[in-house]
Amino acid sequence: MKKWEGVRAAMLGALTIIALAAAMIVPGVGASPAQAANVTDGFSPGNIVSDANFYDGRALDAGQIQTFLNQRVPRCTIGDPGRTAGMKWGETRIASQCLRNFSMNTQSRPANAYCAAYSGRSGESAAEIIAKVGQACGISQRVLLIMLEKEQSLVTDSWPTVRQFDVAMGYACPDSGPGNSANCDPTQTGFFQQVYRAAWQLKVYRANPNSYNYKPFQNNRIQWHPNAGCGTSNVYIENWATAALYIYTPYRPNQAALNAGWGTGDGCSSYGNRNFHNFYKTWFGDPQLPFPVDGRIATYWQSNRSWLGNPKAAAVTNNANGGGRTQQFSGGIVFEPKSGQVSGMQRTSPIYIAYSQAGGIAGPWGWPAAPAVNQGVSGNNVMRFQGGIVAEAKGYGAYLVPTRLQALWEKEGGFGGRIGFPIASAFTGPGDIVSQSYRSGELVYSPAGGSLQVDPDFLTAWRALGAGGGSIGVPIGPSVSSTANGGGKTYPMLRGTMYQSRAGVYAIGTGPFGDAYRAAGGHTGSLGWPIAPAECGLHDGGCAMPFQNGVGLWNQATGMVKVSPQTYEAWKRHDAKLGYPEVTASAVGTGANGGFVHRFATGEAYQSTAGTYVLFDGPLRDAYRSAGGPLGGWGWPTSDLTCATDGSKCVMSFAEGTATTTPNGGLEFVRALGDFPKQRLSGSDRFSTAVEAVRNAYPSPVDTVIIANGMDYPDALSAGALGAKWKAPLLLTTSSNLPEATRIELARLQPKRIVVAGGPGVVNANVMAQLGELAPRVDRVSGADRYETSRAIAQAGWPNGTSSQVFIATGAEFADALAAGAAAGATGAPVVLVPGAASAAPVALTAELDRLGAKQVRIAGGVGAVSSGVERSLAQGRVVERFAGADRYETSSLIAEALFPQNGSNPYWANGSDFADALAGNAVAGAQRSPLLLSRASCVPPSVYDSTARLARDRILILGGTGVLSDAVYMAKRCGI
Questions:
Q1: Helices 916-927 and 686-697 sit at what angle, rounded to 10 degrees?
Q2: Do the strands 805-810 and 831-834 form a parallel or antiparallel pair, or are they unpaired?
Q3: Contact, 941 vs 913, CB < 8 A?
Q4: Which helix (H) or strand (E) holds 695?
Q5: Alpha carbon of 348 to those of 58, 355, 453: distances in Å?
Q6: Burial, 630: exposed, middle or buried (Cβ in 10 Å; 0-12, 13-18, 19+)?
Q7: 52 to each of 139, 287, 365, 517, 691, how far by Cα in Å?
Q8: What mean pLDDT, rounded, does the chain reach?
Q9: 3-state secondary structure of 73
Q10: Which of 519, 520, 523, 596 is nearest to 565 (CA)?
Q11: Contact, 901 vs 952, CB < 8 A?
Q12: d(Cα 128, Cα 100) in Å, to the nearest integer?
């Protein structure tokens, strides 16, 4: 057997005999199969085994191999008396396992030029090793099993030795020892190493045929026996596998060895290759695969045998597409059509793979008509078939150029021509159209236009329409240039036209929409060239397409009408309800106050610098027209109509205000507040902002000033109503020190009395002392908590029986109490705080209501702020009215609109998310009989906007700087717009 040491010797041209003598000259190595009559019949010295059988790396899997090993050794006798594992046996020891039970840790091997990567792991069985090595190196597992038996009898030995595993394949064991004995390299021992390296070596032989003494497809001189005196014989080696066997075991069995079957011949008999044949035939069947090859297939095979290999089956007749024969070989398939040349294809070739996917002989390609012709670069080939010519381009695949396109393709230069090779299968569509993509373009065919190349200027857009141009089909003639409307090109299609201009390439199909466009002059008319794709399937079967000069909006009833892009976008928001345009848009007004009005089936679209909005037919549109339309008091629309989900009202904004409708036919137009006079009252902090609010309302000295903690809100909420009643401004302090801005303002106001809201934990003695320096009298109004403090404030301002109405708000939040405080101050009522989450009003609260003589209770906020349980307990003998909006902003609006007259006061706006700037404003607003409304920081809530528009008289006062209420609020930006 040739080993790795023999490779080097063979490279030098010397025949190195490295066969294991016992395997070559001993007739039955180990336990041989039972003698079978004529077992050597059919042995061919030039074709011991076919390449197909020898190099089939997937012949057996691990499970099949394990079953085979179990059958060869039904019972392993290691452990029987005299066969104990590890006991001395000659120069070695009894192994611990038979091959059927053997396992070991294997090492991963990277891929190399001869074998794919091998992934090692611990505890791999012999069956797994044989299966994986065969698959990695492309050597049949049957061959590996036979060599294990031929070399060391491992397959059938029921008590093998350690050495049998160490040199399992006889690899690296040249016969260079004494008396031609095996001289094994100790670095190459071990079962896995032997199996892997032997399989690798067999592949090395095939890859380097000129490096060894025995070569396939030629005559070779082969010795009969290691004894050169026995002579040689001349053998024509017919395949790679037989050459490998002779390189591995370089002797030919003589007739005496063959006559002996499994037995002994004469003194010049060798047995290694005979036994390989015998084992293969006994265990696995005929090693030569004797399938006949005849006729024109035989002639082709003989010329291409180097890659076709041996036949794998007999020739088969196929009657499809005119009929012929095919025959399978180990390296490919040969086709013999009744008419046409014989040709073959490798199964792994791109052309054959694509051919198979296309249906093979019975598919549109039909029979091969001639062998493949290389195009000058490996992997670039063309091959003629009945259905056309196939082009294979390296890296792109193989595709059929159908007969409809073949003549034009070849006229353009074919594979290396102007359009290049195909890069996709041809598409066949309805009406016998064909299209196919090539490296540098597209070829198409239709009965109407014949075979054409798609104009490159249109190609990308045409392909984007879908296979074969989608609904517009393929070109049926050349493109035509036009100078109209800036210039471009038109391109006739099977079912329409494509248009190219500076705006791009777009398609318009045949049918009513295309007819209407052409009737309007097409690209030369008022619409001009298309600038975007058409949209069809719109409401009522309509279509729309943007053009240079507008959007063509069409349906069957109205035809094509040009609308502006802005009007089209507005129409899309309402298409099903608005219907289609009846006339072309009319211009209304001029300059900054100009725009267009476009009439539709059920309404009108108004386009101005403010945008384009829709007004449907009905009372609102009638009222708008009565007010003078776009040039009247309402101005141009600035929003679409929006309606509440419950249908309670609908709102639409106009340049000069907002129109609101109700289901009962009510309509109100509320003026816009953007340009309405406003005054911002703000300082550098909350304390100075409070000063600005007070200074604006109280320009002269006052008798009384109220002081509250500006870092928290509870005490100031009730104090605001008291300040409004006393006409006493409210200023802010910290709990421990009087801010300088507050001190300066107190000095300006010169009060005779200062009232502090809250106990020492809220405003401490230090502040009281500082206040004592600014007024002759300083009093404190307080209780044990915010609720008792609010009652104490009510008692300080309202003697027994002097307030028939009281405002109630939660003490856990500030928003509702702020709005309530201004309203309470304006109506002369106190604000009393309640623990809103309580199940009932505290007894102290109901007692305070009784003391005040309250007959009416107004609750600020919903049940989430003041519970229904509290409401029920307050209703005992009293009228209870709750003001509850969807949020704090709407609650403030409800209070304002209920208690303040329209256009009768100047509302205050305060941040609804922060109490600081609103505390002083609460008292000021109440004293001025003005509402306090809450706003978001970045926009005015719709409810607040509308209430302000109805209530405001001269101006709006904004509490806080731009960090509290932004410039957008100052400009009355409505939330949601």
A1: 10
A2: parallel
A3: no
A4: helix 686-697
A5: 16, 11, 33
A6: buried
A7: 10, 9, 29, 69, 103
A8: 90
A9: coil
A10: 596
A11: no
A12: 11
**In sequence order, what DSSP letters do the residues of 350-395 get, joined into one string?**
HHHHHHHHTTGGGSTT-SB-S--EE-SSTT-EEEEETTEEEEEETT
Show the tokens assigned to 449. Answer: 């236009």
Name residue 918's amino acid. Answer: A
What's the CA gap between 730 and 732, in Å, rounded?
A: 7
Contact 285, 300 (CB under 8 A): no
CB 783 within 8 A of CB 794: no
Give the Cα separation of 167 and 184 in Å (integer). 8
| Residue 679 amino acid letter | Q
> Are 274 and 286 contacting, i.e. CB atoms less than 8 angstroms apart?
no
Residue 953 CA to residue 311 CA, distance in Å, equals 106
Cα distance between residue 454 and residue 441, in whole Å? 7
Contact 288, 50 (CB under 8 A): yes
Q: What are phi and psi of 692, to 5 degrees?
A: -65, -40
Instruction: Render 154-202 in DSSP notation, one character per residue.
Output: TTT-SS-BHHHHHTTT-TT--S-SGGG-----GGG-SHHHHHHHHHHHH
Question: Is 99 within 8 Å of 148 (Cβ atoms)?
Answer: yes
Cβ within 8 Å of residue 618, ≥6 positions away: none
Write the CA distances from 370 to 246, 337, 386, 711, integer angstroms: 38, 10, 10, 97
Residue 820, CA distances (Å) to 282, 599, 896 in order: 108, 48, 9
- Both tokens of 881, joined, read 């009215």
Main-chain dihedrals φ then ψ at residue 782, nearest 5 degrees: -155, 170
Single-letter amino acid, residue 734 = T
Q: What b/e readout covers 359-368, taking b as 16+ CB neighbours within 10 angstroms? A: ebbebbbbbb
Q: Give the number of other CB atoms < 10 A from CB of residue 135.
A: 21
Measured on CA atoms in the order 813, 818, 819, 825, is the torsion positive or negative?
positive
What pLDDT was estimated at residue 35?
A: 41
Residue of 801 and 35 predicted with greater confidence = 801
Whether 352 and 332 have beta carbons less than 8 Å apart is answered as yes
Beta bridge partners of 380: none
- 16-41 residue pLDDT tens: 222 333 333 334 333 334 344 588 98
What is the value of pTM for the model shown?
0.47
**Once rounded to an integer, what is the mean pLDDT over residues 85-90?**
88
Output the pLDDT for position 585. 79
Calpha distance 127→466 (Å, rounded)? 54
Query: Within a 10 A sphere around the Cβ of 847, how many other Cβ atoms?
Result: 12
Sign of the C-alpha dihedral, residues 19, 24, 28, 33?
positive
**Cα separation of 759 and 829, whole Å?**
23
Beta pairing, strands 856-860 & 805-810: parallel
Could you give the CA distance from residue 526 to residue 536 in angstroms, rounded to a whole number?
A: 21
DSSP letter at 520 equals T
Alpha-carbon dihedral sign for residues 734, 739, 742, 746? positive
Q: CB neighbours (10 Å) of residue 842?
A: 16
Q: Look at residue 20 and give its three-state secondary structure.
A: coil
